[in-house]
Design goal:
The structure is a single chain. This protein is mainly alpha-helical and about 160 residues long. It is built from five helices and no strands. It has helices spanning about 1-35, 55-60, 80-105, 115-125, 135-150. The radius of gyration is 38 Å and the shape is extended. The protein starts with a helix and ends in an 8-residue tail after the last helix.
Length: about 160
């Protein structure tokens, strides 16, 4: 049953992502076809009030050369080969599986709700907790009255 729900959610995600891609593509085409759209091949005007205007004009006056394939740096010598990468991935997957198996007993479930409630009530039962009696209320009131009579106001600030 969970597999069917997962398949339905996966199908829905695919449909939503396809719809989003279609909408994005349509918006891109509309922006390109708009009459006021700039052409990427036309040079934008330079803002003369910009502090970098002189530098921009100097760079545009002397364009540099295009990079060549020879300018691509060589691959690092210590790069792992595909077999080593595969071994690392398999190790990570084995660690993930081990972690899942070790933590699975601690995962909570919604089973045995009554047993959980019974245990919680037993943990909460704390001995002789009871509503206060009239004698205890009178004792508390007498203590509060004695403390009020004994209290002194703080000295005035100078």
């Amino acid at each position: 049953m969970n597999g069917q729900a997962r398949d339905l959610l996966l199908r829905r995600k695919v449909m939503v992502s396809r719809a989003a891609m279609l909408a994005l593509g349509a918006a891109s085409l509309a922006a390109c076809a708009a009459p006021g759209a700039r052409s990427p091949f036309v040079q934008a005007p330079i803002n003369k009030t910009s502090p970098a205007a002189e530098q921009i004009e100097a760079v545009l006056a002397r364009p540099g050369g295009f990079p060549t394939f020879a300018s691509i740096p060589p691959s690092p010598a210590d790069a792992p080969d595909p077999a080593a990468i595969k071994a690392r991935v398999e190790d990570q997957q084995a660690e993930a599986l081990y972690t899942q198996r070790m933590t699975a007993p601690e995962t909570w479930t919604l089973r045995d709700s009554e047993g959980f409630a019974r245990q919680a009530r037993a943990d909460a039962a704390a001995g002789d907790i009871h509503p206060p009696t009239d004698a205890e209320i009178a004792e508390s009131e007498a203590f509060a009255k004695a403390m009020r009579a004994r209290a002194k106001p703080p000295p005035r600030p100078r």
